[in-house]
Amino acid sequence: MATTTVMPRTDVVFRVGQVVEVRSAEEILATLDENGEFDSLPFMPEMQQYCGRRLTVGKVANKLCDTMTRSGMRRMDNAVHLTDVRCDGGGHGGCEAACLIYWKNVWLRPVEDNAGAIPTTTADVPTTVMLRLTDVSRRPDGPDGTERYRCQATELLRAAPDSLPFRSVGQYAEDLRFGNVGPVSVARAFVVGLFDRYQNHSRKVLPKALWIRGGLPWGFLKGVEGKTPTGRLDLRPGESVRIKSKPEIEKTLNPDLLNRGMGFDAEMSRFCGRTARVARRVDHIIDEHTGRMIYMKNPCIVLEGIVCEGAFNANCPRSIPAYWREIWLERVGDPTG
């Protein structure tokens, strides 16, 4: 896929709040291999609409949480997230996950005058290029003929192959240096991580009577035995809801903290009691493991402005939207108020 265009510099470092310009399609294509990737990270069809635009760095993507194998944190090099730039699923069957897109530093250029992000005109991308990007965003169909996709989410373990242990304190210095978070957030993430490791160790070596809060990790969530209940509100975008209390939600979870396959975690419990508006309903997303489209029997709810902030998970910058079962919410007020 590479062209004869001169390769952009690879030693550029960005910080949060810095204004950058997405390089032209031709420049970016020159960095991609035959799979449409740079350092195993795909450049997706949904990204071409931003070519030529000036945008702001929202977070430096120096690490990420592994949501596929639960191996912990993993190292990502030379990449950023741009403010509010999420995948619209247009090149991947309309996937509604709305993942925050990764941008390799070589795909961006710094705006020297830092004049601010402006909605510059996007250059037209040749049809042949778009067809090629769309082609490499697919995997071979499954044995049953089901269409399968390749996207940044499905390839993250290849793009970030190295584990990032909790003891690697340099990651916290980077969080501060790049501007991802402040000192309080760094301290909180480190203390929570240390506590969780103590809890895990205590469950292995100490008698149950000496466990703190039952040996549970931070957040101290505990489900109940038996079949999990369901609830239906038929919520629509714009409606106001209140997130139920943690004890109320715990009653709807099994011992694995799942409600009919959907998880609730400590990061989500931070928002219990908060009121928010419904942003959208989600009923189909790409499975990160297989690349297949998953269609939910019961759509989940995404709320405006509520994403995983990584507060209890080493300040992971992925900002994954939190998915809510309707049984965890209650309708309040006038949606137009």
Quick summary of this structure?
By secondary structure, this protein is of the alpha+beta class.
Total number of domains = 2
Number of helices: 7
User: Mind summarizing the main beta sheet?
Assistant: 5 strands, antiparallel
Query: How far apart lie the N and C ends?
Result: 52 Å
Strand order across the biggest sheet? 8-7-4-1-9
Low-confidence stretches: none
Structural class: alpha+beta
Quaternary structure state of the chains depicted: single chain
Q: Rg, please?
A: 21 Å
Helix content: 10-25%
- Number of DSSP strand runs: 17
Give the topology string: H per helix, E per strand: EHEEEEEEEEHEEHHHEHEEHEEE
Q: Would you kindly provide a written description of the structure presented here, covering whatever features stand out?
A:
With 337 residues, the chain is α+β, with helices and mostly antiparallel strands. The protein has 2 domains: 19-159, no CATH class; 219-331, SH3 type barrels (Roll), CATH 2.30.30. It has 7 helices and 17 strands. The protein has helices spanning 25-29, 127-136, 156-159, 170-178, 183-205, 246-250, 266-269, and strands spanning 19-22, 37-38, 41-42, 54-60, 63-65, 73-75, 79-82, 103-104, 108-110, 138-139, 148-149, 240-243, 258-259, 262-263, 275-286, 293-303, 329-331. The strands form 6 sheets. The chain has a 5-stranded antiparallel β-sheet with strand order 8-7-4-1-9, with no helix packed on it. Strands 16-15-12-17 form a 4-stranded antiparallel β-sheet, with no helix packed on it. It is globular and about 60 Å long. The chain starts with 18 loop residues before the first strand and ends in a 6-residue tail after the last strand. The mean pLDDT is 90.
